Automatic annotation (TrEMBL):
CDD domains: RNase_HI_like. Pfam families: RVT_3 (PF13456). The lineage of its organism: Bacteria, Bacillati, Bacillota, Bacilli, Lactobacillales. Transmembrane segments: none annotated. It comes from Levilactobacillus tujiorum. This is Ribonuclease HI family protein. Residues 1-133 form the RNase H type-1 domain.
């Protein structure tokens, strides 16, 4: 079983977005930071979640078909959209995220408050600050 935590950070003034991915398996952590292409926080949350599943699939390889993933997000819209398989303004992003989850045997999505998602949150903010410093 793998635990996957994702979070996005967006700076509205600059339009920059970044995300953090935290993968935990057998008490081992994989921490990833990623600059994102989206410029609003909701879209960034979907983008980093999709990227998290793609990174996890690359890490797990063919064993995805027998792997259970506990997915944690502090984004209410991502959580609700995955439950309904629908989001009025973000349907293509929901579809992309569901496709990224498809290789796994089972994905259990859990909304968590931001304070319980500090690992991914910190990684997202670090990536965002690095991108802002580079501008």
């Amino acid at each position: 079983m793998f635990s996957l935590y994702t979070d996005a950070a967006t700076q509205p003034q600059t339009g920059l977005s970044a995300g953090g991915i935290l993968i935990i398996h057998d008490h081992q952590q994989t921490q990833l930071k990623q600059l994102l292409t989206t410029t609003n926080n909701h879209a960034a949350e979907f983008e980093i979640a999709r990227l998290g599943f793609l990174k996890l699939a690359a890490l797990v390889g063919p064993a995805c078909a027998t792997t259970t993933v506990l997915f944690y997000t502090d984004s209410q819209i991502v959580n609700d959209s995955l439950t309904k398989h629908y989001a009025k303004h973000y349907q293509s992003l929901v579809d992309d995220l569901l496709a990224a989850q498809a290789p796994f045997q089972l994905v259990l999505t859990q909304w968590v408050p931001e304070k319980q998602n500090q690992g991914a949150h910190t990684l997202a903010n670090q990536a965002l600050h690095s991108a802002e410093d580079a501008k």
